[in-house]
Amino acid sequence: MIGKNFARRAFAALMMAGSLGAAAQAGEVTFWTWRQEDKAAYAELFADFTKANPDVTVKFEAFAVESYATTLSTALAAGRGPDVIHTRAYGGLEQFAKAGYLLALDPKEVPELGNLPADALASETLRSDGKVYSLSFASQTLGIFINNDVFTKAGVQAPTTWDQLIAVSKTLKAAGITPIANGMATAWMDEVFTSVLTNPFLGPDFVADILAGKANFSDARYVAALGKLLELRDYMPQGFMGIDYATGQQLFLSGRAGIFVGGSFEIANFRKQNPKINMSFVAPPAPAAGAPRYVSKFYDGGYAVNAPRRRTRRTPCAWCAGWAPSSSVTSSRRCSATSRRSRA
Amino acid sequence: MTTDRLRRAALARRKRSLWIAVLLAPGLIVMGLFVAAPLLSAFRYAFYSFHGLAPADFIGLRNFTEVLTEAPFADWTWRALRHNGVVFAALMVAQNGLAFLIAFVLLKALPGHRLHQVIVFLPVVLSAVIVGFLWKLFLHPLFGLVNAALALVGVQGLPWLGDERTALGAIIFTNAWHWVGFPALIFLAGMQRISKETLEAARIDGAGDWRLMTGIIWPLVAPATTIVFILTFIGSFNWFELPYVMAGLNGSPGGATDVLGLYFYRTAFGNVTSGLQDFGHGSALAVLMFLFIAIVSGLALRVLRRREIQV
């Protein structure tokens, strides 16, 4: 009796799953990303999207950050891959766009492009044809994190000039606290560290000269700025050349160090790892009092449409604009209009 | 009657070859699909320029000349090759030399030699990823065992993996710790094949340990030396897992631990920050590595085999 009942229920469930599967295939859009940590946020956005477009559901798939590019390029080369691709910016976008895997975004179809600043658009533009292939999803700001509790205990304040940074570091060290948490053993983090602390000495003039081809990285200004970093050696963890990114983060989060040089991408992770942390994220110190405190920023990537797949599946192109949280309502309406048009 | 028997024999032979073919087929298919095909496609890609990720034009040997002679590739290629050479030399002397001594001691069958045999061989069964991760922790400048032990005797340890002077050495040391049991086992097997009479005769003639080891055992384990040499050579020039786990794709710090395996991988598949993939130059590097290892190990094998016969 129980056996029969179970079989009937299982059969019904199978039918449901089958029909759901068939329906899902008709209006399902797949999205690939390397950011597993954003899954919950995307689930909310996708739910809103499906509410506005009942015939379209979105399937979220995340891959390990180290292998994302390889997985994606293999899938694309085999004529597969998702409908919507989370892409990197700059060169990381270029290799996919150049190979013809991404759809050039038409400003008429994706008017949201008009809301983006010029440097965001530039980060998603293929230099050889000047077309935009991806819709920027985040800009990251680089700066320094201050552990406020550690600073208060040591009786110091967040430094605003380089000399203050050295003075604060001396006080922290005397109090038995490692002033700066960062080490040098993770190559990409060295780029962040160098960029944050040398940029205030270099300023926009140097960047302009580099872009114009008038200066290179053996320029006296750059060498001098790098030289300033040597002054920090005494205030970094013991054996800092062998301290990696993860150790630096832990030293800061546990309050064993007072300062962490990093980017806005740390904030969510820091809060998750130590919800009680009382921290500030501030601009790097200026070379002298009154001088501007320059901050570096870059675009992390964007959303692009898989061009070969769209040709066969007619994926709505502008729908991804609906995810931008600020404009989600208006753009999802526009999205549904576009998706109807593309299906017609 | 005889023709019938012949026919039956022919049929049996055909059945037998069919049976062999059936047994070989799964292995051949797997090897063909996952070894031969990728190898051939890497050969093909090495002759193409890439338009982003898609192969574009046939460019002959340009990828090869660029990775060997033009900046910035050439500097990286030669630096990586030099590091591989250092790794090979160091492993031959330190790892395999030690393995030879261990094998000689184990041959003496001192009390507890079986237990020691197991202990020496034990790390070999661990995965390189686990070993790399463990030693990375041991060598950590703040929380590592090594520096903590040094601190107990009043020595301040170095950031072993972060210092350009010690990083490659630290990874070579880890490799030797991991693998020393393997050549030791091969040498021991070679030594155990030497007849007892030979060794006893040498002893009676008054040969000490040193004379026995250098004059009798060393020449007689020549076949084992050949195997160890060739395997160490291939392993050193294909070195990837340990430096990948312990130094990352860039061969940190500042390329001090960059070897051909890492250099090839990050050129072809990109690293964490850029994700830029360059299959043309990557494939050219892979082909060059393959040719270099195949040719040198082929030559070494010939020379070493001749040496075996001489002795």
Your description of this structure?
The complex is a heterodimer of chains A (344) and B (311). Chain A is built from 13 helices and 8 strands. In chain A, 46% of the residues lie in helices and 15% in strands. The longest helix of chain A is centred in the N-terminal third of the chain and has 26 residues, at 2-27. Chain A has 2 domains: 28-133 and 306-343, D-Maltodextrin-Binding Protein, domain 2 (3-Layer(aba) Sandwich); 140-298, D-Maltodextrin-Binding Protein, domain 2 (3-Layer(aba) Sandwich), CATH 3.40.190.10. Chain A has 344 residues and is α/β, with parallel strands linked by helices. In chain A, helix 2 links the parallel strand 1 and strand 2. The model of chain A is unreliable at 1-26 and 320-344 (pLDDT under 50). Chain B is an all-alpha fold and 311 residues long. Chain B has a single domain, classed as MetI-like (MetI-like fold), CATH 1.10.3720. Chain B starts with a helix and ends with a helix. The relative contact order of chain B is 0.12. At the A-B interface, helix 3, helix 4 and helix 8 of A face loops of B.
Relevant terms:
heterodimer, A: 344 residues, D-Maltodextrin-Binding Protein, domain 2, 2 domains, globular, B: MetI-like fold, two-stranded antiparallel ribbon, flat
Can you lay out the helices and strands and say which pair or pack?
The complex is a heterodimer of chains A (344) and B (311).
Chain A: H1 2-27, E1 28-33, H2 39-52, E2 57-62, H3 68-77, E3 84-88, H4 91-98, H5 118-123, E4 135-147, H6 148-154, H7 162-174, E5 178-180, H8 187-211, H9 220-229, H10 245-253, E6 257-263, H11 267-273, E7 279-282, E8 297-305, H12 307-313, H13 328-343
Parallel strand pairs in A: 1-2, 1-3, 5-6
Antiparallel strand pairs in A: 3-8, 4-6, 4-7, 4-8
Helix pairs in contact in A: 2-13, 8-9
Chain B: H1 2-45, E1 48-51, E2 54-58, H2 62-69, H3 73-107, H4 113-121, H5 128-138, H6 145-152, H7 167-179, H8 181-192, H9 196-204, H10 209-220, H11 222-237, H12 241-247, H13 260-269, H14 279-310
Antiparallel strand pairs in B: 1-2
Helix pairs in contact in B: 1-14, 2-3, 2-14, 3-7, 3-8, 3-11, 4-8, 5-7, 5-12, 7-12, 8-11, 11-14, 13-14
